[in-house]
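SAMPLE LOG
Freezer: B-3
Tube label: C17
Construct: single chain, 160 aa
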Amino acid sequence: MKITIKDLFEARENLPKLAGIQDVPVKIGYWIAKLVRKLNEPLRDAEAARNNLVKKYSIPPEEEERQRLELEGRLGEIEKKPKSAANKDEKKLIEVALVNLKSLKNRVLDENLEKFSNELSELTREEVDIDIDIIKLPNDIKLPDASVLIGIDNFFEIEG
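STRUCTURE (predicted):
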């Protein structure tokens, strides 16, 4: 079966919901577990490619380190100065900047967002060939709600 990487990402989100349903016949539980194992390898590859894109378009580690050291140096200089309201405010601003810098780690920078989105979209349209059989679910299976099958419906067929 050929599926897109987008389908793989959606399956990763929704398969655990199906696997967690109570009273699933043992045979179906077995096939779901087998499906999960077969999807894991291409999922790991897709996730690695996505992570490489994030790294490509986020703040480079050496730039993050340079900015961090610069901010910490400014913070050290302020702490040596006599305490004043202006110094206290500047210290708070630098501390906030350090926290913000940490949150930028492994986050796509705004100026790179369009390029990142285009490349990620291209990646998610790629197809992978997975050797799996459609799993037949009994028509009386009790699903918590239909959303459980969203993104994984191409792996299942309801009998009846």
